[in-house]
Each structure stands twice: as C-alpha cells, then as structure tokens.
Amino acid sequence: MSVIGVIGGSGFYEFPELSNQKKISIETPYGKVESITQGRFNNVDVCFIPRHGGEHNVPPHKVNYRANIDAFSRIGVERVIAFNATGGIGEQFGPGRFVIPDQVIDYTYGREHTFYDGKNESLAHIEFATPFNEKLRAVLKQAATESDIGFQFGGTYGCTQGPRLETSAEIKKLQKDGCDLVGMTLMPEAALARERDLAYASLSLIVNWCSGLSDEVISLDKIMAQLESSIPKIREVILKTISPC
Questions:
Q1: What would the 3-class secondary structure string for 184-224 be?
Q2: CB within 8 Å of 213: residues ≥ 6 apart
Q3: Residue 92 φ/ψ, nearest 5 degrees
C-alpha cells in the first residue's frame, strides 16, 4: 500500500486526525527534513510536512522544496496533496473559495528548482504540459463535492516570489497573463514532484482579493481569520481524498 504525502501551507501546521503519530527526520542530499509527522488514517499511511515549519518561520522563497520532496520519495510516498493559501484574481475566485488548479505559471527566481542541477544527478527534462496529476485532481474534486464547499475545478495559479504581496500593476500583468489565483509556494514544488515521479495535486484556498481588485486594504488579520475558519474544512477534504487514493 502506498504512502500519501500531505504538505500543509499557511495555517495548516498539524494534522490531529492522524492516529499513531510519530515525528521523524530524514537526511537528504539537499538538506535535513526535521518536521515530518508519520501517522495513519483509515488504514492508510500518511506523512505530513508543514511547508513553512511548525512555527511558520520559513518564508516561501526559503522553503527547501527539494529536501521535502526528496524525503517524501525516500519514505515511499507516491501521491502528494498540497495545500496552498492564495489571493484571487478571476471573477469566480473570491475569498473563501477553494480551487483545484489545473495550470501554473512560474514567476519565481533564484530557487533551487530542479534535482537535475548537474551536481547530484544527470541531466533530464520532464514533461510538464499538465503540471498536476489528473486522477488525483478527480479524487480531490469528489472529496470537495462531498464536503459541500464552494470550489472551482480548474484555474491557473501564478506563483510569485514573495514574501511581499504583489503591486496592483503586477496583478494587472498576472491577470493579462491568464492567472486566476496567485500564491508563492506551488513552484518549484509541483515540478520537483514530477521529477521524482510523484502524483501531485493542489487544494488552494483564496484568502483575499489581490491588490487593486477590491476597495479593501489587504489585511493580514483578515487573511489569518479566513485561514483559521477554513483549516477544518481543508483537513476534511484532504481526509476524504486520502481514503480513495
């Protein structure tokens, strides 16, 4: 039976629903991963990593994405469900809505974005036209439907560098590029999962309208309140996804 990997984003730092929990650390060629929780749910082995650390002290551009994905691969993870907190651009992508994206545009820079860096492994080129695993997305869709949440099945995620939020002009550019939602953590995570042949899909939550799209000033307090109220639903959807996986 394969192991399911779950990556928690902002606000999602623990997974109390898992039984038989234990903390482990794993050494990889890319660094040590110390925050892995192993547990079980409905007789399925689950490994959970809080992307920003348990204290939310790792900014998006400093996350060791390579170590996290490599660690998952080493402990038998075959499918990865990632949670991402995002801002909304498209008309149907307002605060409080969930999204199961089907495309991504990468605007990040300076991140260690591949295992094939010429140092640790020989050169290879992955196919990435469809960046998410369609079977896993379908299971997420069914789980979201059963959980009775408002969600969009499909959307283009624009991944920016962070940790600052975007200017209004940058959001206009992203909008023209076809982005529906904007976050800072999907890349290079999704591409690294593909390089390690791990099925990967994202459950994203819109926590605010992006800059310039609302009369309201973006408030960190409001973002955190949206996350706090939504995390139980996020875990519910992911748990419903785990069983059929």
A1: CCCCCHHHHHHHCCCEEEEEEEEEEECCCCCCCCCCHHHHH
A2: 88, 89, 171
A3: -90, 10
| Cβ atoms 60, 161 nearer than 8 A | yes
Gap between the Cα atoms of 220 and 223, Å rounded: 5
Give this prediction's pTM. Answer: 0.94
The whole-angstrom separation of Cα 189 and Cα 201 is: 10
Measured CA to CA in angstroms, residue 106 lies from 103, 183, 242 at distances of 10, 10, 28
Angle, CA 126 vertex, CA 178 and CA 38 arms, to 5°: 90
- Alpha-carbon span 159 to 180, nearest angstrom: 11
CA distance 18 to 29: 29
DSSP per-residue codes, 36-75: EEEEEETTEEEEEEETTTTTT-S-GGG--HHHHHHHHHHT
What is the chain's pLDDT, residue by residue, as a tens digit (245 residues)?
A: 579 999 998 888 889 999 999 999 999 999 999 889 999 998 899 999 999 887 778 999 999 999 999 999 999 999 999 999 999 998 899 999 999 999 999 999 999 999 998 777 778 899 999 999 999 999 999 999 999 899 999 999 999 999 999 999 999 999 999 999 999 999 999 999 999 999 999 999 999 999 888 777 777 778 888 888 889 999 999 999 987 66
